[in-house]
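call fold target=Membrane fusion protein, multidrug efflux system
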Amino acid sequence: MKFAPVALLTAATLALAACSEDIKKKPAPPPVPVTTAKATEANVPVALRAVGRAEAYESVTLKPRIDGQVAAVLFTEGQHVKQGDVLIRLDPTDFAARLQQAEAAVARDEALIAKSRADTARYTALRDRNFVSEEKVNDTRTNEAAATANLRASQAAAEVARLQLSYTTIRAPFTGIVGARVVFPGSAVKVNDTTLAVVNRVRPLLVSFSIPEKHLARLRSAFKAGEMGVDITLPNDKSQHFTGKVIFIDNAVDTATGTILMKASLPNEDEKLTPGQFLNVSLILDVLEKAVTVPGEAIQQGADGNFVYVVKEDNSVEMRKIQIAAADGSLTAIASGLVTGDTVVTDGHLRLTPGVKIRDKDKDAKPADKTEKTGTEAPKAQ
């Protein structure tokens, strides 16, 4: 019986050795499937993004300068018009009659002044021969001056009547697009009250947007240095891009929002954009030349800031902190932490920890694609 403890100890030692061998033989976890991408070199624009609204470069609401009645509407809704095109005619009958009356008064006063001048000349000659007094000559001169003043008043009244008659024809003040019809033949219009038509100039087009005041110093510096470009897209269609340039920075910050108003002009030659639209505005401040870039999906947020998983030569990953310089669409420019040629993980981050082995799903898929192609082409070869 005194050999029993020794036997038990030997058995326990053998069992522990067997367990150790089992642990050593336990296979390593399989590599984590991920998607990777190479850090590349590219020129990346430094941009500020904002939401803007399109505005007409020029816009005018046409209103009558006289009371009257619409005689004819000579445009169609949405028509392109040129400067000087006739849009609406008001009934000119009353104003034409007033002009004739004023012109008749001018003719009368011209006749009176001709008579007054003749009288002045005649009485001046008689005074020189001592047939009339100096007082009579002064009276004729006064009559001539009064007739001259009456003529000027009549001429001014005729000019007013002529202008009022011209106001019966409403023309396009500039080249643009006319809006909806709001008056029709027979409509009564009131001076400076009734809206006759709205004309907008949309080539070029303005886009107004606001930028936080913290960027003001940089904005003014870039604006003074030269043309500050903008890239504009539609909210629901990022495939179409419209380029323009900043033409205006407001002279004061909006105290309610802490932003400053800016305006950009773009050609809009094809008129794809129209006043009132909301637009995405990307304000280009600078361009980073030959920057190290990675897809934005590779950037992860951690407690200490941004980081990426970098694939090492043995297919394990390491966590590397980075500093972001700028972002442009799907690409992000890295200020520090990466060099061109580094391989970073773009998908599959949730299962990663430093030192974990990975396998590239894209590389695994390529041989399968080749096999599949071979299998489909084999029957054709037979």
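return ok
The first strand starts at residue 32 and ends at 38. The chain has five helices and 20 strands.
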